[in-house]
Design a protein that fits this description.
The chain contains 9 helices and 2 strands. By secondary structure, the protein is mainly α. It folds into 2 domains: 3-41; 52-216, no CATH class. Strands 1-2 form a two-stranded antiparallel sheet.
Length: 229
C-alpha cells in the first residue's frame, strides 16, 4: 500500500472523524481488493455473456407451437352437431398467427446492433415488431379465407370479433412494454428483451382461450360452407 498517499490525504482533511472513516474504507478496499476486483470483473463478464440472439431458445417459440396443438384438438358444434367448417377455420387462424409471430420474433433476434442500441430505439423496434406481426397475420388469414370463398363481410366479422376478445391482452402488452422500459431493473438490452419475451409467452398462452371464445360466438354462420384446405 502507498502510505505516502494516505499521508497526503491526512494533510488535506482536517476533520479527524472524516479522516478516520476514509482511512478505514481505503484499508478495507486494499485488504479485499482481489475479491472486489474479481466480483466486478465476473459481473461484467456475466452481462457480456448474454446476447439477445440466445433468446432463440426461449420458450416463447415452443409456446407458439404448443398453442397450435391445443387448438387442433378443439371441436366446435352448432345445434349439437359437429361444425367442421368452424373447427377448421379456428385451427387455420391459429396456425397462421403462430407462424407469422414466430417468423417476426426470429428475425428480430438477428437485428443488427440490437445488443448495443439505445434503449429508446430498442423500445421502438419492439413496438414496431408487435404492430408488424399483427398486421401481417390479419392480412394473411384474410387472404386465405377469401380464397376459400368466404364472403368479405363474414371474414371481416370474424377478425373484428377476435380483436375484440384480444383487445385487453394487446393493450396490456403495450402497458407492460412501457413499464419494462421505464424501469431501472433491466441493466442491458438482453434483460429488457427477455422481459418482453416472457410477457409475450404469457399472452400467447391465453390465445387458445380467445380463439375458442371467438369461434363459439359464430354460432352456425359458416356450417354450410364447403371449406377446403
Amino acid at each position: 500500500m502507498n502510505f505516502k498517499f494516505i499521508s497526503d490525504i491526512a494533510k488535506v482533511i482536517d476533520h479527524p472523524w472524516i479522516l478516520f472513516f476514509l482511512i478505514v474504507v481505503i484499508m478495507f478496499m486494499w485488504i479485499f481488493r482481489k475479491g472486489i476486483s474479481s466480483k466486478l470483473f465476473s459481473q461484467k463478464q456475466k452481462q457480456a455473456k448474454y446476447k439477445i440472439k440466445s433468446l432463440e431458445n426461449h420458450n416463447v417459440f415452443s409456446t407458439l407451437e404448443q398453442i397450435k396443438m391445443e387448438v387442433s384438438h378443439m371441436k366446435f358444434y352448432t345445434d349439437s352437431y359437429y361444425d367442421t367448417t368452424k373447427t377448421k377455420m379456428c385451427e387455420d387462424f391459429t396456425i397462421v398467427k403462430s407462424n407469422v409471430c414466430s417468423k417476426w420474433m426470429n428475425n428480430f433476434l438477428k437485428y443488427e446492433g440490437i445488443d448495443t442500441m439505445e434503449r429508446d430505439k430498442l423500445k421502438k423496434v419492439i413496438l414496431d415488431l408487435q404492430t408488424n406481426m399483427h398486421e401481417e397475420y390479419i392480412r394473411d388469414i384474410r387472404e386465405m379465407w377469401l380464397e376459400r370463398k368466404i364472403k368479405v363481410k363474414d371474414v371481416d366479422y370474424i377478425i373484428r370479433l377476435f380483436e375484440k376478445f384480444r383487445y385487453d391482452v394487446v393493450k396490456s402488452f403495450e402497458n407492460r412494454i412501457d413499464s419494462i422500459f421505464g424501469s431501472n431493473n433491466y441493466q442491458s438490452n438482453y434483460y429488457l428483451t427477455l422481459a418482453v419475451f416472457e410477457m409475450w409467452a404469457m399472452g400467447i398462452d391465453l390465445l387458445p382461450r380467445d380463439m375458442h371464445t371467438t369461434f363459439e360466438n359464430l354460432n352456425g354462420k359458416f356450417k354450410d360452407i364447403k371449406y377446403e384446405r
